Structure formats: C-alpha cells, structure tokens
Amino acid sequence: MLQNSKAFSGFSVDDTEKAKQFYGDILGLNVTQDNNMGGVLTIHVTGGAKILAYPKPNHSPATFTILNFLVDNIADSVNQLKAKGIQFESYDMENFKTDEDNIFRGGGPLIAWFKDPAGNILSVIETKA
User: Fold this and answer.
1) Half-sphere exposure (CA, 13 Å, Cβ side) for 79?
2) Which site in 36, 45, 72, 86 is 20 to 30 Å from 127, CA atoms measured?
3) Distance CA 121, CA 27 (A)
4) Which pTM was predicted?
C-alpha cells in the first residue's frame, strides 16, 4: 500500500531560529522555513530527502539518534565539526565506549554523536565507498 509513497521524517525543536542557524550555517545544509505552517523548517539532504523540524512548546529532546550523516572520513568530519564549535558526546559504558576523539570504535561502523541546540542526538558514521 505505501511502497510507492514518498516518506519524510520529522522531529521537534524548542527554537526554530537556533535550529535554522545550526542546521544551515554550522552543518551547511540547505534549510527553508515555511512561516505559513508555524515556522516549520525543511532540512534538505542529499538524495532529495526532506526532514521537518517543527516547533513544539513542550519539546523534550529525543533520547535516541534522530539523524545520521554518512561521511567518508570520520576523524576529519569530527575535527571539522569541532572547529565549528560542536561538542561531541562521550560514552564510557562496559560495551559502549568512545575514545579520546569521541569516536566509537567498538565494532561495526565508526560513529560519533553530537546534539543539536534542542538537545536532539545526531551522528556522523564513517562509510567505506
């Protein structure tokens, strides 16, 4: 029934202006805003997908990763994002540890997590072409 339907994802933020600046200026994504829909942001990503960031007065940050960015070189990507002021998460659990560069290297893809201004969790994941 839905196999031919175009789908999109969305998440809430507490401040669309901060979100627009973060996703547009810091992450370098194309972001548009629809003031006729209460200021909803559309984040345009490679491949034509669109992700909505909508204002929510009682926003609570997601406790899981809402958006993953595939990158060719995670160390370079982490360093470039850190240079733009992004702070990466550190984890130190028995089977879930990040290294001194905030990168998880414990099996599977190399991954590093960070948060947007609303506290939602994002990641960069290294892929080998």
Assistant:
1) 4
2) 86
3) 14
4) 0.91
Residue 118 · residue 18 · CB < 8 Å:
yes
Q: What domains appear along the chain, each with residue ranges and CATH number?
A: 8-59 (3.10.180.10), 61-129 (3.10.180.10)
Scanning the structure block, which residue is given the tokens 């200026």? 25
User: Cα dihedral angle (1, 53, 71, 22), rounded to 10 degrees?
Assistant: 170
Instruction: Extract the tokens encoding 6.
Output: 């175009």
86-105 pLDDT per residue, tens: 999 999 988 889 999 999 99
> What are the DSSP calls for 40-92, one per residue?
EEEEE-TTS-EEEEEE-TT----SSEEEEEEES-HHHHHHHHHHTTPPBP--E
